[in-house]
Amino acid sequence: MITNLARGVQAFTSNAFLVEGDRTVLVDTGSNFDAVARIRERDADLDAVVLTHTHHDHVGNLETVTDAFGVETWGFDTDHSAVDNAIADEETVRLGDHDYTALHTPGHKNDHLCFHSPAASVLFAGDLIFQNGSFGRTDLEEGDRDLLVESIDRVRDRIDETLSAMHVGHGPSVTTNPYQDVELAASAARMG
């Protein structure tokens, strides 16, 4: 089961997805809301935090979550203080009941990862791609439009029309033809 703990939060935050199962993982912690209370409401036994990237809105709640549950953090760049353990490009990561392939997808931020599971038919897209063909900002530090386009293309080449759900860093998850939103993002990012 995948639950967005940040749903309904009015403060500025990223989404924070609790993926329950064999290995219960929080994908991004969000910021400016009580993530610990929301995890406890679900009576979840958290095993780890996995980060799509280390922008503050995605890691603002990190310290309170790791302290409360005694878990470590996994992400692309262990040089960042928020990341305890490295996830390499193409590494397999267990989220809930499924194995996901980590895809290094820079362009929005150098340490950005997406996670794709063909078996679950799910993509965690972070801030690379959003609903309706929107895509991550490239005007922030480490932003690079050409790299972003390459990363979107890489993700598009990994998925297909059978993808059931795309969970994004901001806004609603896409559960109706998410492949189309990825294709739109690939086209729109080229035009920017």
From TrEMBL:
Keyword terms, alphabetized: Hydrolase, Metal-binding, Zinc
Span of domain Metallo-beta-lactamase: 13-167
One Pfam family here: Lactamase_B
Cofactor: Zn(2+)
Gene3D superfamilies: Ribonuclease Z/Hydroxyacylglutathione hydrolase-like
SUPFAM superfamilies: Metallo-hydrolase/oxidoreductase (SSF56281)
Molecular function per GO: hydrolase activity; metal ion binding
PANTHER family: HYDROXYACYLGLUTATHIONE HYDROLASE GLOC (PTHR46233)
Protein's UniProt name: MBL fold metallo-hydrolase
Taxonomic path: Archaea, Methanobacteriati, Methanobacteriota, Stenosarchaea group, Halobacteria
